[in-house]
Write a structure and sequence with these properties.
By secondary structure, the protein is an alpha+beta fold. It has helices spanning 2-11, 19-26, 68-82, 122-129, 175-185, 190-193, 248-262, 277-282; strands at residues 32-37, 43-50, 53-59, 87-90, 101-103, 133-134, 141-147, 161-162, 165-169, 205-212, 215-224, 231-239, 267-274, 287-293, 295-298. Strands 5-14-7-13-12-11-10-9-8 form a nine-stranded mixed sheet, sandwiched between helices.
């Protein structure tokens, strides 16, 4: 597990995921691992499979273009086929090390783009040549980031009331209202908001809520160095459908981002988001730094 973790970090150092989470996923008992080592027994390539998902397929840079990646992919597809699955998914299954295949390729129109200079289409091209397609038919998937030195000091703050909406840190007494809000706005996020650690005063991770007439109408998770030293993050933004169009989401992101700057952090990120939200997060200064190919391929059986 340690070797796989080190190889992942070597190649994907720019992807923001908490170390503890990565180690837990890499070491999961259900994973099937295919590896390639050099003559010195160093790990140079690996594929991690769980059910029908390839969580990771990576070849160390100095060993690429030798057919190693192609061989690992064929073996991975064979294993998934032998388990009875008719489709391979790249990235997100029961969990994920990264949402999909990192790429500079934009599949649909986007705004507020400032990609990492080293990104290219090499990885997405590799999979597309082998029959994989981007599965989000009307949307990009991407990460965003910003330098907090560029974030304005005069932005709204925790405790402010803007156009009749009050913004504050949540506590345990707010959980019921938070879950109700999230269920209406984005059901998939409920599992994250059930984490009890979010509702105790700490310097690690907290929930910002928006309140109108004593009702929680918006939520945002704010993380302080959860993904790495000097880095903050915001995510899982929700706004009740009845309250949309009032810039509540934008205000929460602005307030959450200011709290990261006030904490002395250098950069702010948000991960695994999708087309449309580049517009909302762009108001606060976030820019797209990485796209992901959300790859899928249907398998054939028999000879």
């Amino acid at each position: 597990m340690e070797e796989v973790y080190k190889l992942y970090r070597e190649v994907f150092s720019y992807i923001c995921r908490e170390e503890e989470t990565l180690r837990e996923i890499i070491g999961h008992d259900s994973n099937i691992r295919i590896e390639k080592r050099n003559d010195g027994h160093e790990l140079i390539a690996v594929s991690l499979i769980r059910k029908n998902t390839i969580l990771l397929l990576v070849v160390r840079e100095d060993y690429r273009r030798q057919g190693i990646g192609s061989h690992l992919l064929r073996e991975s597809e064979d294993i998934i086929r032998e388990q009875g699955y008719n489709k391979v998914v790249l990235g997100v299954g029961d969990d994920y090390l990264m949402p999909g295949v990192p790429t500079s390729k934009r599949y649909f129109p986007a705004e507020h783009e400032n990609l990492y200079h080293f990104l290219n289409t090499e990885a997405s091209d590799f999979f597309e040549r082998r029959g994989y397609k981007h599965s989000w038919h009307d949307s990009n998937c991407f990460d965003m980031r910003m330098s907090l030195k560029d974030f304005p000091n005069e932005s709204p703050n925790v405790g402010d009331t803007i156009n009749g909406c009050h913004y504050k840190w949540a506590n345990k007494s707010d959980v019921e209202g938070i879950i109700k809000c999230v269920q209406e706005a984005e059901e998939d996020f409920v599992k994250y908001y059930r984490n009890p650690d979010l509702y105790v005063s700490n310097d690690h991770e907290r929930v910002l809520v928006a309140i109108v007439n004593h009702e929680i109408v918006g939520t945002l998770i704010v993380g302080f160095e959860t993904e790495g030293k000097g880095q903050g993050c915001v995510g899982c933004t929700t706004v009740k459908p009845s309250q949309r169009g009032r810039h509540i989401g934008v205000n929460m992101v602005m307030i959450g981002t200011r709290s990261l700057k006030d904490a002395g952090l250098d950069t702010a990120t948000l991960s695994y988001t999708y087309s449309g939200l580049d517009h909302m997060y762009g108001y606060s200064g976030y820019q797209i730094c990485t796209y992901y190919m959300m790859g899928e391929k249907y398998l054939t059986f028999g000879k």
